[in-house]
Amino acid sequence: MQKEIIVLLGGPGTGKSTLINELVARGFCCYPEISRQVTMKAQEQGIEQLFLEQPLLFSEMLLEGRIEQYKNALEEPDNVVFIDRGIPDVVAYMDYIGDEYPEHFTKACEDFKYSKTFILPPWEEIYQSDSERYENFDQAVKIQDHLIETYKKYGYELIEVPKDTVENRILYILDKI
């Protein structure tokens, strides 16, 4: 079997981390979203929202971390690896805020390709803000639009995961792989 590196994507609060946690509980190899760690590390240094205050620095750190996740996933003994958010997310967020970014952001999106991409739609009933998620639901929907546009620009076919129970969403994803 060929290595499958599968990304779960979607705007903030769509249930990606919940699904990753459930996949881990079922024994799958999964890599968590790293933006929370980057944000929390900056908060420990007194920067409340690194993405808002220094978006390019934040995005550089995310890009580096996501490339490292991808490379590590290639080395995993498991044939299937799930990742919470992918490299093109970095470009989508920079486009969302309207900031420019270096060419190596685009090159990374072209060089590191995922096997499958599952997108979780905005879902107001499960959406929650917290100390690392500053966006409101309307902003989350706009981010979703940028994610769709960005992933399609890099040639991905997005498989939409229906709004349903965690169990049914997991079964849907596993059925598609």
Walk me through the structure.
The protein has eight helices and five strands; from the N terminus they run βαβαααβααβαβα. By secondary structure, the protein is of the alpha/beta class. Strands 2-3-1-4-5 form a five-stranded parallel beta sheet, with helices on both faces. It is globular and about 40 Å long. The model has no long low-confidence stretch (mean pLDDT 89). α5 (87-97) crosses α7. The termini are close together. The longest helix is centred in the middle third of the chain and has 21 residues, at 55-75. One of its GO terms (molecular function) is ATP binding. InterPro entries: NadR/Ttd14_AAA_dom (IPR038727), P-loop_NTPase (IPR027417). Keywords: ATP-binding, Nucleotide-binding.
How does the SSE layout of this entry go?
Elements: E1 4-9, H1 16-25, E2 29-31, H2 35-44, H3 50-53, H4 55-75, E3 80-84, H5 87-97, H6 103-111, E4 116-119, H7 137-153, E5 158-160, H8 166-176
Parallel strand pairs: 1-3, 1-4, 2-3, 4-5
Helix pairs in contact: 1-8, 4-5, 5-6, 5-7
GO molecular function, one term: ATP binding
Pfam families: AAA_28 (PF13521)
Protein name: ATP-binding protein
Task: Describe this structure in a few short sentences.
With 177 residues, the protein is α/β, with parallel strands linked by helices. The protein is 53% helix and 12% strand.
Strand order of the largest sheet: 2-3-1-4-5
How much of the sequence lies in strands comes to 5-15%
Main sheet overview = 5 strands, parallel
Specify the helix fraction band.
40-55%
Distance between the termini: 12 Å
Mean of the pLDDT scores?
A: 89
**Outline type:** globular
Class of secondary structure makeup: alpha/beta
Radius of gyration equals 15 Å
Low-confidence stretches: none
